[in-house]
Write a structure and sequence with these properties.
8 helices, two-stranded antiparallel ribbon, 66% helix, 2 domains, 239 residues
């Protein structure tokens, strides 16, 4: 599902490959997930793969299998996720961000009614949380892609390579500072409203529709700044 592979049994231990194909795959795994990495790498770099049909039957051994279903299964699944940051982080993160932004913008304008359910300022807070979590997932996807390419787990992807090349440390930090500054200005505006009310009670909807975007923007701006700094660390050249 993650890699559009047509292989029916990707744990089969009987495989044939050329020396050139093996060198291209540049396999890194140190455990039994090596079997999955071979198929995934072959798919990702476009090698020709043919599966020969066979008939399965009990092997006749009397001892218990040495496999540990949960531990070994998790090692394979973890490797697949590492090879697929788009499906693990990027796509869910973008969907969550888009939902939070659209739903939150609608709630800032006024209460929203869907069927018998009514949504108001409490839902706005959760929409803001969706934006924050979604952005974090997107940043994780970019870091995982960057790390995977650098360590040789992932082949160079033209689209992601162009995106990562454009996301220099300075550009990301600048974007974070702009968002953070705008959020702080909005926060100061909400403080001004509180001062004008002589530090007394405020209208909940009025102040929350200002404070929530300010808080979300402050968090997102700070995340971008920290992401930019960490990206700078990963970009340090070494021999």
């Amino acid at each position: 599902m993650l890699f559009s592979s047509q292989i029916g049994d990707f744990h089969c231990g009987l495989r044939g490959f050329s020396k050139a194909a093996f060198a291209k795959m540049d396999l890194k795994s140190t455990g039994m997930e090596f079997a999955s990495e071979m198929v995934l790498k072959a798919e990702l770099i476009g090698l020709k793969i043919t599966e020969v049909p066979t008939t399965l039957a009990p092997d006749g051994r009397t001892r218990r299998p040495h496999l540990r279903p949960w531990r070994d299964g998790w090692r394979h699944l973890r490797l697949m996720f590492l090879f697929s940051p788009r499906y693990l982080f990027l796509i869910p993160g973008l969907a969550l961000m888009l939902f939070g932004l659209v739903f939150g913008a609608a709630l800032i304008r006024g209460p929203v009614t869907i069927g018998r359910a009514g949504f108001d300022i409490a839902s706005l807070v959760y929409a803001g949380a969706a934006v924050v979590v979604g952005l974090q997932a997107v940043l994780f996807a970019l870091l995982a892609q960057f790390y995977g390419i650098r360590r040789g787990f992932l082949p160079a992807d033209d689209l992601m390579t162009n995106i990562l090349d454009a996301l220099t440390m300075e550009r990301v930090i600048l974007a974070g500072l702009l968002i953070l500054s705008a959020s702080l200005i909005t926060g100061l505006y909400s403080v001004g409203i509180w001062i004008s009310a002589d530090f007394g009670d405020l209208i909940p909807r009025e102040i929350i529709t200002i404070a929530t975007p300010s808080a979300v923007g402050s968090i997102c701006g700070s995340e971008l700044i920290m992401f930019g700094l960490f990206l700078g660390v990963l970009e340090v050249q070494h021999r």
